[in-house]
Amino acid sequence: MCNLFATRGFDTMAQPQPTTTPRAEEPKFGFNDYSERLNGRAAMLGFTIMVVIEYLTGQGLLTWLGLQ
Fold first, then answer.
1. What one-character-per-residue DSSP string does the chain give?
2. Each residue of 7-47: pLDDT tens digit?
3. pTM higher than 0.70 for the full model?
4. Sign (positive or negative) of CA dihedral 43, 31, 22, 15
């Protein structure tokens, strides 16, 4: 069986391919690189502050919250 496109003059392999990738606009909300990076930095900062406060006061997080 022969290729239908090749017999009608449409050789799909001879078409030029794009040389660059189009630039898509960054999403303004949701899971994008900037929001994930910012969230990770805020979490690291909060965790570090929590550890320092626990070290300085001698009390853990559960004690601060009144659960222990």
1. ---HHHHTT--GGGSPPPSSPPPPPPPSSSS-HHHHHHHHHHHHHHHHHHHHHHHHHS--HHHHTT--
2. 555 555 667 887 888 888 877 777 888 889 999 999 999 99
3. no
4. positive
Lookup: tokens for 43: 């979490």
Give dist(CA 42, CA 1) in Å, integer: 62
CA distance 51 to 58: 10
Q: Indicate whether 1 pLDDT > 90.
A: no
CA distance linking residue 53 with residue 25, whole number of Å: 42
